[in-house]
Structures are given as C-alpha cells and as structure tokens.
C-alpha cells in the first residue's frame, strides 16, 4: 500500500504590521548637529552630579553618551578615566586617559590622570614620564609632584628588591 500526503496549499496571509509606539519615533527628541555640544555639556553636568554623589556607574553612563555625541572633548575622556579608576577598571581608565592626552596634549590634568592610571596598572616608570609631562605644562602642580614622588618611590623599591635578590646564596644539598 502506498501512502501519500495531501499537499494542500494554504492561503498565505500577509504578515500583519503591528503598530508599535517606537515605530513612529518623534525625531524632535534627537538633537540636531548644532545642539549636540549643548546636549553633551548637559550630559556632562549630570555625570558630574552623579560622580559627586558617588554614583559612578550612572556618571559613567552619562559621560559615555556625551562622548558618543562629541568624541573630541578631552574633558569627558579624562573624567571617564577618573571614574574608571574609582571602579577598579584600570585598563579602561588607561585607555580613556590616553585618549584625553591625545586630544589635548597641553592639559596637565589629563597627564596626571594618565600617570595615575599607569601607576595603578603597575607601570611606575611610565607614570613618572606622565607626571613629568604634567609638571612641564604646569610646574606648580602639587598633585603631579606628589604623585611623581610616589611613583619614584615605587621604582626605587622595585630596584632594591631586584638587587637584594642578586646577593642571596644558593643553598644546595651537601654530598659526602
């Protein structure tokens, strides 16, 4: 006995278009090109307020949105780096601080933040160089001077540990 299936053609119903609220997005909410810097500064001030309150994740969100609108503003990258340091995200802080110094190489605060990021990342030699750049720009910066001294102390301590390891004797089993 041979079995066959009935291939009945169903009527294809056209896919129903749903009327969702986000389908008709109001374009007036999105800032235009001339309003982007103002909107970015508003987001920056909201982020500053969150950071002052210790709400670092919210501040980071505001600043990242502002960076997406105006990526050429070094202050946003520098503030982002500071908050990332507070959150313990050293590698991301290092990247953000580096970007801030690339955008505005004559800004001492950006170099100080980069130096602190390098210090937290375990690179005191590079941190000393960054603090030197900050001091070259702003010689009276007490923060840069203090942080440079802390980095120099770490470099000195590392050298002492390295040299103390060379003066040790090797103990071997004595064979009779």
TrEMBL record:
Residues 1-38 are annotated as: Disordered. Keywords: TPR repeat. SUPFAM superfamilies: TPR-like. TPR repeats lie at residues 40-73, 108-141. Residues 8-27 have a biased composition (Basic and acidic residues). The keyword Transferase does not apply. PROSITE patterns: TPR. This is Uncharacterized protein. It comes from Genlisea aurea. The lineage of its organism: Eukaryota, Viridiplantae, Streptophyta, Embryophyta, Tracheophyta.
